[in-house]
Amino acid sequence: MLDRAFSKLPILSEEKSDFQIPQVDSLVQGNKTLIRNIDQIAGKARRGKDEIAKYLTKELAAPVSISGQNLDISAKVNISTLNEKIKRYFEMYVICKECHKPDTHVEGRDRGYIKIACEACGARYTVKSY
C-alpha cells in the first residue's frame, strides 16, 4: 500500500527559485571598463559596492574604484569575464552552501576568513576572505 501511495504522489523537481544573478552592464572606454549597474548587483547580493570592488580588484588584478553609480576598472575587461567573476562572487559569498538561497549576510571577519550566516536556514559557515 505504501508503494502505491508513493506512486500516486506528484514528482517534485528541484526547488525552483526566481533568484537570478544579474548580468553585468559594462562599457569599455579607452583603457578603462565601467560597470554601470553595480547598484543593481550590490542590491541583489545584499552587500556593499565596496566589498564587490575589493573582490574584483583581487580577481582581475587591476585597480577598481567607485565613482558615483559606476564601478571603474583600470583595465580592459570583456563582459564574459566580468559575468563569470560576478557569478563566482555570488556562488562563494552570497548563496548559502546548505539551502542554496541568497538570503545571507556577513557576520564578521576573522584572520582571513569571512563569517556568513543564512537567514533562511540558519546555517553559519566561514569562507576564505578575498
Break the fold down into its secondary structure elements and pairings.
Blueprint (H helix, E strand, L loop, with lengths): L1 H7 L17 E4 L2 E4 L2 H8 L3 H12 L3 E4 L2 E4 L5 H15 L10 E7 L2 E6 L5 E5 L2
Antiparallel strand pairs: 1-2, 2-4, 3-4, 5-6, 6-7
Task: Provide a brief overview of the structure.
The chain is of the alpha+beta class. The chain is 32% helix and 26% strand.
3D architecture notes:
This protein is an alpha+beta fold. The protein folds into two domains: 20-94, Defensin A-like (2-Layer Sandwich); 97-130, no CATH class. Helices cover 32% and strands 26% of the residues. The chain contains four helices and seven strands. Strands 1-2-4-3 form a four-stranded antiparallel beta sheet, with helices on one face. Strands 5-6-7 form a three-stranded antiparallel beta sheet, with no helix packed on it. A hairpin with a 5-residue loop joins strand 6 (113-118) and strand 7. The radius of gyration is 19 Å and the shape is elongated. The termini are far apart.
Brief descriptors of the model:
Defensin A-like, four-stranded antiparallel beta sheet, 130 residues, elongated, three-stranded antiparallel beta sheet, 2 domains, 4 helices, alpha+beta
